[in-house]
Design goal:
single chain, about 450 residues, mainly alpha, 22 helices, globular
């Protein structure tokens, strides 16, 4: 067992000071023109500096030994698989977006909803589109301009409408099998997508249902007008629904993405929205969009491996052992750890990758099932990412809608309800499932 060493956590502290500090400075103290303050400092640069700090620690290990520790961390089976999935998910997303699948799917759903249920409809559509696309920011980018157009012809509140879109986008991001958060959460915990989906769905569904009820009550008390007709191609909607269905049936994620890419290519070419050159370019653009996430994953895997080798993870576990009471305490610890990482990084995928190794150790220590750990990582990161005003989701939504990100927060019903559902799910965890901690388990 590694000796507890709180100083080994210094790289993460350095990262938080650099990344969060620069974000606050450029967002509120000295704002940069046409630049989101929390994106002035690239997350890759901040983690690069943190990695240098990690290498400067612990003189008992030679430089080449530290390189070996990093290589072992990067070469973990789950990290490698996760990187490959990121590439395929990026290719699918880029291809589907270029083919017009996302806009056709959104327009088809909008074309069939009544005008007075537009807010509810936008929430449900955002849920479906985000689950199919695997990206909350992409969903927001597609749907917010449509939401703005709807508000302009009705008397609905703009912040409410945008809040519904953001909430639905986070629902799908949390559950989609091709979302980078789902990929990161499942691969770092070594669990199947379908198992994590089942654990997540039990928490997310009640929150979504209550959100729908709230939005329905609002809709029936506010008159709407008939929505305009939206053009769509029914065939272009097929790839998303096929991917969604195959994922729900528990098919291997590589097969799901492979089938999705092939289907989008064939239908896009047949519909005239894709050609071979544009398809190849779109796939390249999609995979390129994943590069930062992949580099961050590699850097975090290296930093985490060094911190674990130095005894940093054991220090965190010691802290949780002192304050957590059984399995429920361990689960709250995982949720809090993930939430704090997301607040600091303003990126739910990065938050998961940073918290995952520690969460895995907490799960082992407190006998929390791996699929439950993965669910908590993904769900808690999406909760905080969906409500922080400086996160990409709210900043993009606010920019497209011409309102402030702070004005949207009171109408983010789904993320707040999801947080309540997470707390309830932990409190309802049956005590008899707890396994007494033995000295042997503590030494694992």
């Amino acid at each position: 067992m590694k000796k507890s060493n709180p100083k080994a956590l210094l790289p993460i502290l350095v990262f938080l000071i650099i990344y969060l500090g620069s974000g606050i400075f450029f967002e509120y103290v000295r704002p940069e023109k046409e630049q989101m303050g929390f994106y002035v400092m690239p997350v890759v640069v901040a983690f690069g500096i943190a990695l240098i700090v990690a290498f400067l620690q612990n003189r008992e290990l030679r430089f080449d030994q530290k390189i070996h520790v990093c290589a072992q961390g990067i070469g973990d089976d789950n990290i490698v698989i996760m990187l490959f999935i990121f590439l395929m998910a990026g290719a699918f997303s880029g291809l589907a977006s270029s083919a017009g699948c996302a806009s056709s799917t959104a327009n088809m759903l909008l074309d069939i909803i009544p005008g007075n249920l537009a807010v509810v409809g936008m929430f449900v559509i955002a849920c479906l589109i985000s689950m199919a696309m695997g990206t909350s920011v992409g969903t927001i980018s597609v749907l917010v301009p449509i939401a703005v157009e709807i508000v302009s012809s009705t008397n609905f509140s703009m912040p409410l409408m945008i809040g519904a879109v953001v909430g639905g986008a986070m629902f799908g991001d949390n559950l989609s099998v091709i979302s980078d958060t789902t990929i990161a959460a499942t691969r770092t915990q070594g669990v199947e997508m379908k198992d994590k989906f089942r654990a997540n769905f039990k928490i997310a569904l009640p929150a979504a249902i209550i959100t729908v009820i709230i939005l329905v009550i609002y809709s029936v008390t506010h008159s709407g007008t008939q929505l305009a007709h939206y053009d769509f191609n029914i065939w272009l909607t097929l790839p998303y629904f096929v991917v969604l269905a195959l994922a729900l049936f528990g098919l291997n994620v590589f097969l799901v993405l492979g089938i999705g890419i092939g289907l989008v290519f064939l239908i896009g070419c047949a519909a005239g929205t894709l050609t071979i050159p544009t398809a190849l370019t779109a796939m390249g653009t999609g995979t390129t969009g994943m590069f930062e996430t992949m580099i961050v994953t590699i850097l975090v895997a290296s930093i985490s491996a060094l911190m674990k080798e130095y005894g940093g993870f054991e220090a965190i576990l010691d802290f949780i052992r002192k304050h957590a009471k059984g399995k429920k305490g361990g689960m709250f610890g995982i949720g809090l750890l993930t939430g704090l990482m997301d607040i600091a990084t303003a990126n739910n995928t990065v938050a998961i990758v940073v918290a995952a190794p520690i969460a895995k150790d907490i799960g082992t220590e407190y006998d929390v099932a791996p699929e439950k750990v993965a669910s908590l990582l993904d769900t808690c990161s999406c909760i905080f990412q969906g409500i922080i005003p400086y996160g990409a989701q709210l900043l993009v939504a606010a920019s497209l809608a011409g309102i402030s990100s702070m004005s949207i927060i009171p109408f983010l019903f789904y993320p707040f309800l999801l947080a309540i559902c997470v707390v309830i799910s932990i409190l309802l965890e049956r005590p008899e499932k707890d396994r007494p901690r033995t000295q042997e388990s503590m030494n694992d």
